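Example 5.3 — alkanesulfonate monooxygenase
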Amino acid sequence: MNVATQIRPVAATDRSPLDFLWFIPSGGDARYLASPTGERAPTPGYLREIAVAADRLGYYGVLMPTGAACADAWITAASVAPFTERLKLLVALRPGLTAPAEAVRQAAALDRLSDGRALLNVVTGGSPVTLAQDGIFLGHTERYEQTAEFLDIWRKLARGDTVTQEGKYLSISGGKLLFPFVQQPHAPIWFGGSSEIAREIAAEHVDVYLAWGEPPQQLKEIIDDVRERAAKRGRTIRFGLRIHFIVRDTDDQAWAAAHDLIQHVSDEQIAQFQAMLTKGTDSVGQSRMQALHKGSRDNLEIAPNLWAGIGLVRTGAGTALVGSPDSIADRLQEYADIGIDTVIGSGYPHLEEAYRVAELLFPKLNLPHHRRETLPPVLPFLPPIAGQKAAGRMT
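Solution (predicted structure tokens):
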């Protein structure tokens, strides 16, 4: 049963504007979760197709995921950049995998290649198992300490400083970036993390703090805390929401689509995946995601129009906004009211859902980046061919 709610309609022109990004499924796409039915390989052509569609539909940007199960984020971003015009490219900085000096050169090169469209997502990582596969064996606190050192050096280099310093994890002598960013002082830095040390890093170093889709009042506690920590440093930062979307013409159609998405997921698959996740992560944010559904398919609507079904068999962002365009627009306004001004959405499959979200939801939002292609309302009548009657509309 859906959670009852009093929806307060808000006119689109009165809504807080959002930067709305989409997701590039470089680890593969699917029509159903936990099922080979309808799987799509992350071929270069398919990923490019999604990026081009997002650019044309008016999305602000796209997120390139990172990890062993995904194609490299930097190569993927560089491959779609020449085929897009306005689309921002949010790619991963991985402390512990790349030295700050090399990472800043890569980032500046992508920013120049894309004419100032690079965005940078700092990913410390929350699974010791997958981190070990990349050769990273630091504990949770140590990884974030390394991230802080990485960002300190990286930001100084990005500003054009000549950097010499020695740290616990990272050191540099006479480092300098010779080819600067198009964006000044550098491409914006995004970052997510719910732990105490992660919030401190966000307050000190980042431009956009990125959270997963928890209920608004629960998420407000984190946003208020990070905002206060930043203010003590004389800084202001923005806040983003990473979440899935299942939007249809009506609420009933959207909930039917949500249930359809997990129709092939068995209770055994859920139990195995949740057990693996519990043993294989030290991420505070991941633990918060698991607590929303508690490993059960019962009562998955954890707040009005907020569904935790995706997190049953998926790591990371595990919630979706489900409903009609009006319902989801009102829910997004609730997130905007607590400070969210940026959204990274996704949906299965990502190509079709990019169109659905743009066509159904964007008109309900005050999105300055939305662009529509103007076409005649109907195809014009064809001129008559000699000796024949005039043709009507094409069928």
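Remark. The radius of gyration is 22 Å.
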